[in-house]
Predict the 3D structure of the following.
Amino acid sequence: MASLRFSRILLKISGEALAGGRPFGLDTATIGAFCRDIAQAVAAGAQVSLVIGGGNIFRGVSEQAAGMERSSADYMGMLATVLNALAVQDALEKLGLSTRVMSAIAMREVCEPYIRRRAMRHLEKGRVVICAAGTGNPYFTTDTAAALRAMELHAQAILKGTKVDGVYDKDPVKHADAVKFERLSYMDVLKKQLRVMDATAISLAMDNNLPIVVFNMFATGNLTRVLSGEQVGTLVEGE
């Protein structure tokens, strides 16, 4: 573990990423690919926790939720994250990893309730902890949940796995002249309104000086490279 720049991390993955190229749902090949990278990270000595979004199934602020009361829609989104967490748990355990899904909403038949000290103990024993159901409260995104859990579990960094290789000044898929940032401060992200994580999550990270690395999770080996301290993606940190 001494050779790793970050020995305890929280990995944030969007629900849409789990869909692969599909408009919704789960793509088992995509899930299996990044789970193999997680397995390599654990084998290298990293303690890994995850927060996964639910946008591939239901998003509380999407067109699907039009006309719904916001709290009800957000709770539906939280339940979607539990479905994704169970899918990732299954893929990780097929690779021989020990895992625990811990939900902010109690559902004891399928996962453990989230208890910070128990989650810490799981990490210390080498288990991958998958934090589901966001914060358990409406009006908070899984980005905010990721920042909160990272601080509670004493993670050394938030790693945000995306489909692109960092943060750009505009969408690189739509704009060929998009410029990639190698490093940003928290205030840069807030002032430029860059879509790294939501403003609440960025503010929490800034208040606690928690670095954020945005990188392409779906390029084989990138996760281990980030943990080893290589310059991969975009680093968001203090001035």
User: Anything to note?
Assistant: The mean pLDDT is 94. Helices lie at 15-18, 28-43, 70-94, 116-124, 142-152, 186-192, 199-207, 222-227.
